[in-house]
Structure formats: C-alpha cells, structure tokens
Amino acid sequence: LLISSALRLALERDELVLHYQPRVNLSTGKISGVEALVRWQHPELGLLPPLRFIPIAEETGMIEAVGEWVLKAACRQMRQWRDSGLALESVAVNLAARQFSRPDFSERIADLLEECGLEARYLELELTESMVMREPERVVQVLRELKSMGATVAIDDFGTGYSSLSYLKRFPIDFLKIDRSFIADIPDDVDDVAITSAIIAMAKSLGLQLIAEGVETQAQSDFLRRLGCDHGQGYLFSKPVLAGEIERMLRSENTND
Ligand code: G
Ligand code: G
Ligand code: MN
Ligand code: NA
User: Fold this and answer.
1) Which protein residue's CA is at the shortest distance from atom 8 of ligand 1?
2) Ligand approaching nearest to the C-alpha of 215
3) Annotated domain spans of the chain
4) Longest dimension (CA), the chain
5) How much is the pLDDT for 106?
6) Which atom of ligand 2 is nearest to the CA of 50?
7) Are 16 and 53 within 8 A, CB to CB?
8) Cα separations (Å) of 190 from 2, 193, 194?
9) Is 160 exposed, middle or buried (0-12, 13-18, 19+ CB in 10 A)?
10) What residues have CB less than 8 Å from 126, skipping those under 6 apart?
C-alpha cells in the first residue's frame, strides 16, 4: 500500500522515465524499432528497474495509470522522432494483463493515438503468452480491432509460457520475440539451438517476423541471421538508453551510409 501511494505521487511528480532499447534488423544491421522500458527515478532510492514496482502496481491496480502514462509517453516520443525526420519503424510498449483485459482496450488505444497524433502503424504492443491464452475468443476480436487500426502485435518472452501452436495460427500476430533464455547459450548448447531453430522455422511458416531477445555476442547474431531470424535486440547492439541517445544512434546510422 505504501508503494502504491508512493507510485501515485510518482506519477503526479513525473518521476517515471522511459528508456528505449533498439531492435536491429539482422540483415541490414540497422535499427528497425525500439522497445520502451519504464523506470522510476525515485528521489531517494535512485533509478528503480520495473521489477521493483511493476509487480506491485499490478497487484494494487496502479498498473492502469502507469500503463497509460507509458503508452502516452512512448507515443509522444515516437511522434517527435517521426516529426524530426528519423526513419524509425516502430515503438514497442509492454502491456500488463490488467490493461489488456479492459473491455474498452482497443478504443483506449485509438483515442490515445489520436491524442498523440501518431499513426497506429508506428505502435507495437507486446503481450505475453499467458495474456493471449486467457480468453482466446476475446483476444482474437481485440487483435483484429488493433490490426484493422494498423497497430502491430508481438508476443513477448515467447517459449516461456504455455504455448499452443494453434493459437499462433488463429491470432493475428505480427512478431514473436524469442525469450532470451533460449538465446543465452547458442550456438554452443545443442538443445537451445534445436529449440531456437524450431521456433524460427515454425514462425516463418506461419508468416510471423522474429525478434531474438538478449543477443549479447556477434556469434549469436550471425547464427540467428543464418537461421532466418529477422531482428535482434540485446546488449550486443545497445542496452536500453534515453531517447536522446536513440536519436544520436539513428543520426549516426544515416551519416555512415
Ligand atoms: O528494462 P528491464 O530489463 O529491467 O525490464 C524488466 C521487465 O519489465 C521486462 O520483462 C519488461 O517487459 C517489464 N516492463 C518494462 N517496462 C514495462 C512497462 O511499461 N509496462 C509493463 N507492464 N512492463 C514493463
Ligand atoms: O521481458 P522483456 O523482454 O520486456 O524484458 C526486457 C529486459 O531485458 C529489460 O530488462 C532489458 O534490460 C533486458 N535485456 C535487454 N537486452 C539484454 C541482453 O542482451 N542481455 C540480458 N541479460 N538482458 C537484456
Ligand atoms: Mn518486452
Ligand atoms: Na521479453
């Protein structure tokens, strides 16, 4: 409860900040998108990672207000990047189960995009497997609504939850993000290589794009590219950074052409 009221104050005092982690196209080596990751700049405790406050926000219901703040801040930032001529394809936002299960979820997204003056195609929503498996009928409907608006959807931490291959076919999903636990020990660990190869082959045959998370070495990046993985995200390319740093990276990409 203490943290919950502190978090409410944090929102009022504008203490939340977004960091952005680039996602790189493995064929071109260029930044194709960024993922927004929230932090809390606490006046006494310093910069708090999401794991220190998101689970509590989920339990107390504060996650709806936090989630709205994140969506708004990410969409505004994306609008600014586009306005300043930066060719960034998308900003991805992590959603909590409670946000996504609101009956008016897709309308909220539509209103928000309009408020921020951002076209839906620049927004990517990250859902987890458990969120889409909970009420598959409703989820199909909501995903269709989002898709018809032009937004894209990614399944985050793929492979760590209960996956049914049939839902992948049934749900209008654009991206699978392979969980970093499968990436960490490739190309050395034969089991992880087998799992990762199978995920990539399956996703490709269903027409989904792949993002490997937690790419830390050039060997992992090369291996993933050879397997046909489209994008990579991880410390090899960049840790999550402030918006200004993303802008600097994008500008230096252009001058290196
Ligand atoms: O940035 P970091 O690696 O510490 O993120 C840890 C976890 O916090 C990730 O699993 C990420 O999905 C989650 N997270 C980061 N930002 C948000 C957010 O804005 N909303 C929600 N629901 N989760 C987030
Ligand atoms: O669950 P989600 O994918 O949203 O979590 C993103 C989290 O992964 C962030 O906390 C981010 O800091 C972390 N992360 C990003 N790249 C790497 C990486 O290359 N290695 C490791 N170990 N963690 C990473
Ligand atoms: Mn994520
Ligand atoms: Na993830």
Assistant:
1) 50
2) 2
3) 2-255
4) 52
5) 96
6) 10
7) no
8) 47, 5, 6
9) middle
10) 35, 92, 93, 94, 95, 153, 154, 155, 156, 177
Report whether pLDDT(257) > 60. Answer: no
Token pair for residue 79? 């609008």
Alpha-carbon gap, residue 34 to 92, rounded angstroms: 6
Structure tokens, 154: 């990614």
Please determine, for residue 46, whether its predicted confidence score (pLDDT) is greater than 80: yes
ipTM of the complex: 0.95
Chain centroid offset of residue 257 CA:
27
pLDDT of 218 higher than 90: yes
For ligand 2, atom 23: residue with the closest CA:
214
CATH class entry, domain 2-255: alpha beta
C-alpha span between 249 and 257 (Å, rounded): 13
Q: Whose CA is nearest to atom 18 of ligand 2?
A: 214
